[in-house]
Specification:
Elements: H1 4-14, H2 44-50, H3 54-66, H4 73-85, H5 91-100, H6 106-115, H7 119-131, H8 140-149, H9 155-167, H10 174-187, H11 190-199, H12 205-217, H13 221-233, H14 240-253, H15 256-269, H16 275-287, H17 291-300, H18 306-318, H19 322-335, H20 342-355, H21 358-370, H22 378-390, H23 394-403, H24 410-423, H25 426-439, H26 445-456, H27 460-472
Helix pairs in contact: 1-3, 2-4, 3-4, 4-5, 4-6, 6-7, 6-8, 7-8, 8-9, 8-10, 9-10, 10-11, 10-12, 11-12, 12-13, 12-14, 13-14, 14-15, 14-16, 16-17, 16-18, 17-18, 18-19, 18-20, 19-20, 20-21, 20-22, 21-22, 22-23, 22-24, 23-24, 24-25, 25-26, 26-27
Length: 486
Amino acid sequence: MLPLKLQSFLKHYTATTATTTTSWLPKTSSTLAFPSQNHKPPTLTFLADNSTTIQHLKQVHAQMIISSHINDEFAASRLFSSFALSPFGNLTHATKIFSSIHKPNSFMWNTLIRAQQQPHKSLSLYISMRRLGVLPGKHTFPFLLKACSSLSNPLLPCKQVHSHVVKFGLCFDCHVANGLVRGYCVSGDLVDARYVFDEIPMKSLSLWTSMICGYAQNFCYNEALELFEGMIVEGFEPNGATLASVLSACARSGCLELGERIHEFMRVKGVEVGVILGTALVYMYAKNGVILTARKLFDEMPERNVVTWNAMICGLASHGYVDDALSLFESMKKEGIVVPNGVTFVGVLNACCHAGLIDVGREVFCTMKVVYGIEPKIEHYGCMVDLLGRGGKLLEAEEMIKRMPWKPDVVILGSLLAASKNNGNTEVAERVVKEILNLEPHNHGVHVALSNMYAEAGLWQEVSRLRKMMKEEKLKKDPAWSLVAT
């Protein structure tokens, strides 16, 4: 059933005899009042913008062709935009409209670039656009840079687009700069991202937010916090995205005091705490060991996603609240609203490691694939090796490493070596040291560890042999160091 406005308008265009201004209306009884002669029917452009189904759009398209309105650049642009960008649209149909237009304007090119689901197609369209001599504008580059950010290797395309931004004199446009900063941050090129950011004289809130988020997502937490302070000094009031990124930085860098100040700022300003901000607060408090506050915030949240559950479970596990972590995991399963993911199982297995719950750990590890269809990753195997090693199950841990679908890394082997040392098992330690040296021939610390194990076991001949070999090869253990935050 067509909307009334669309029905009446189409009737107006298909009528062959009626010529009055009221002929577009459906026939009514004489008792009803007719609109005045100044009343005009809705335009096809209006109908294209306000259609609610693909069928409506196709009918408007048909009427545009019949009435020759399709040759009107503005009307064709609006119809094309609705086909390309509407939730119910059809990109294939939009592309046909685009191809049928003799000289598509820059708005149409931008819309088609924006509508593409595959980023490389957006880049190809931009190349075609330039070959045809169509000039890009300030709206072209943000869509293009968004496509670049979605590529697996975005750095080179971002730099190429950046050169075009410079060429067309759009370096100081905030929207374009924001796209560049995001593109470089996704690429991990924070130097160029910061260069673009610093070059903008009048920065917008979104630009500050993009740079702060970029630092936080690339684990440069101190830089994120410094930039946040600079943003406040400049008089900008942070939005939800900024606050979430800064809270994440506070969690990772241990800045509890700043995190608490931000939380207080949110209370005073009445900032709405949704799932994202609520999760960021839970994560910040849990990571910094303020478990009671984290749990209170968690329990007060009306809606939680899997990241929220993971933040609380992992926080409880890493701070030794094993029973609470396992109980929360059971609650998550009983609710059934949120399905556990790989990160959830890392937290649960970590809790098992802290308490030495070997049987529970084995069961949890098995349910990952059998019940939830989650393939264990190297971090899950690492938790199991640590759990078995702490429980003295060295041979089982060694077998688990051999059954891994990947080659073990130094972290897993180091965990088994530490367990071998704690259990005084030099045979397993010797095999592990060989594996580590195959991966890192210059890792001299393992020689020292093995030598110390021989000494503790009273195998002085082996100690002498190993230390002689280290001396002949001039092997030295790198000195240890630590960092205390002030």
